[in-house]
Amino acid sequence: PPRSTLFPYTTLFRSVPTGHCVRSFEGHTGAVESLCLSIDGRFAFSGSWDKTLKLWEVATGQCLRTFDGHTSLVSSVCLSADGRFALSGSKDKTLKLWETATGHCLRTFEGHANVVFSVCLSADGRYALSGSEDKTIKLWFLDWELEADAGARDLALGSEIGLAGPGRWPEHGEVVGVEERGEARTVGAELGGFGG
Question: What is the pTM of this model?
Fold first, then answer.
């Protein structure tokens, strides 16, 4: 059940030096689970138990766009460095990559066996990283290609890159477990495998 301490589904924006609440963002119909700010501080992105993501204008508190597509609560969100794309993780076991300008879901990534608790994008937009209750971390290669028919940049199927087996990160320059496009093979690093 939703946690009563998060009601009534508002996101607060606070001034760090003073701690004063600058603005409230209202619009979600479920508890807000995850938040991030764009690098320039102009936009906020939120994920909620209502299964949606929302893009907000920080200066006004206005909801610019709602992103629908997950079939369960959204547990983690992040924005790309240029603010053009967003990544989300959900209890539905998937990650979704979104175009912020349109709200269009560009790609759904499947492979986790349980809720995806954490997601992030690399600064250059080439990789996505996800962590799940299934005890794996997955590194995804985002293969951007120019689609001739559409005449626009599109995303090919995300390839999954294994983390070189339990408890070991790849050596410098090492390529490990790169997937063929369109194939889904579960690989990952067991969280319990790390140690001295």
Answer: 0.70
